[in-house]
Amino acid sequence: MNQFIAYIHTNCVACGACMKVCPRHAISIKYGIKAKVNTDLCVGCGICVKTCPAGIIEKKERT
Ligand code: SF4
Ligand code: SF4
Question: How many domains does the chain have?
Answer without folding.
Answer: 1
